[in-house]
């Protein structure tokens, strides 16, 4: 389940097992543009038959209602992703989405992978960048300013403590919470592209959580 899928084409690009069903959830206008621009080979491939598009506006519509109407099977274990989205929606909407995920998977197990922007970006921006990062506060202001300028302001930033508590309320426990600093040694160093401290953004966190019954 790719929530806020945007223009990501991983469902088409990856070699997926034929038994796997992929759900892409996003605004109808985004999905229409994406599907119109898919190369013909991807749009007509065998994999495309596994992909179900569900149109929804997270801020105004009910996720579970639309998924159930589209045939979502609540008996099957599901991996949910919500990447690069939480900062653009209200905290109430994020909490509501989490509540709906918990309700949809109460008969089975679930994994929830999402990203969030650290609240320190506003209160202590220097801590959101590597040691020695030049003009950290100015960069933080620029990042948020540019997002607002294109009509997509970052309206929701989170602390780790608040998210752990929110997840627990809905039956999920955090397994991993990583930043680019953590991932540097895993993905960049092995290919000779290690980022130095003064190049690292730590403002975005990547979280993997599982339902407690998993």
SSE arrangement:
Layout: E1 2-3, H1 10-13, E2 22-26, H2 28-37, H3 40-43, E3 51-55, H4 63-69, E4 78-82, H5 91-104, E5 110-117, H6 120-123, H7 136-149, H8 160-169, E6 172-178, H9 180-188, E7 204-211
Parallel strand pairs: 1-2, 1-4, 2-3, 4-5
Antiparallel strand pairs: 5-7, 6-7
Can you tell me about this structure?
The structure is a single chain. The chain is of the alpha/beta class and 214 residues long. It has helices at 10-13, 28-37, 40-43, 63-69, 91-104, 120-123, 136-149, 160-169, 180-188; strands at residues 2-3, 22-26, 51-55, 78-82, 110-117, 172-178, 204-211. It has a seven-stranded mixed β-sheet with strand order 3-2-1-4-5-7-6. α5 (91-104) links the parallel β4 (78-82) and β5. The longest helix has 14 residues, at 91-104.
Binned strand content: 15-25%
Shape verdict? globular
Mean pLDDT: 91
| Helix residue percentage | 25-40%
The total count of strands amounts to 7
Span of the ends, CA to CA? 17 Å
Question: What is the chain-wise order of helices and strands?
Answer: EHEHHEHEHEHHHEHE
Give the biggest sheet: 7 strands, mixed
Concise structural overview:
This protein is an alpha/beta fold. It has helices at about 10-15, 30-35, 40-45, 65-70, 90-105, 120-125, 135-150, 160-170, 180-190, and strands spanning about 1-5, 20-25, 50-55, 80, 110-115, 170-180, 205-210. Strands 3-2-1-4-5-7-6 form a 7-stranded mixed beta sheet.
Which descriptors would you attach to this protein?
single chain, about 210 residues, alpha/beta, seven-stranded mixed β-sheet, 7 strands
């Amino acid at each position: 389940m790719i929530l806020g899928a945007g223009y990501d084409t991983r469902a088409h690009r990856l070699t997926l097992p034929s038994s796997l069903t992929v759900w892409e959830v996003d605004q109808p206008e985004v999905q229409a543009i994406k599907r119109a621009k898919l190369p013909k080979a991807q749009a007509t491939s065998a994999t495309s038959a596994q992909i179900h598009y569900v149109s929804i506006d997270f801020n105004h519509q009910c996720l579970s209602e639309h998924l159930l109407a589209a045939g979502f099977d609540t008996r099957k274990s599901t991996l949910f992703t919500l990447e690069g989205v939480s900062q653009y929606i209200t905290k109430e909407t994020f909490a509501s989405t989490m509540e709906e995920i918990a309700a949809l998977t109460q008969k089975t197990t679930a994994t929830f992978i999402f990203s969030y922007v650290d609240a320190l970006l506003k209160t202590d921006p220097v801590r959101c960048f590597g040691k020695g990062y030049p003009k950290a506060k100015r960069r933080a202001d620029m990042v948020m300013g540019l997002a607002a300028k294109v009509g997509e302001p970052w309206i929701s930033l989170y602390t780790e403590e608040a998210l752990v508590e929110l997840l627990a309320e809905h039956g999920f426990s955090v397994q991993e919470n990583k930043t680019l600093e953590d991932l540097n040694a895993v993905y960049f160093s092995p290919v000779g592209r290690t980022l130095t401290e003064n190049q690292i953004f730590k403002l975005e966190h990547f979280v993997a959580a599982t339902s407690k019954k998993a």
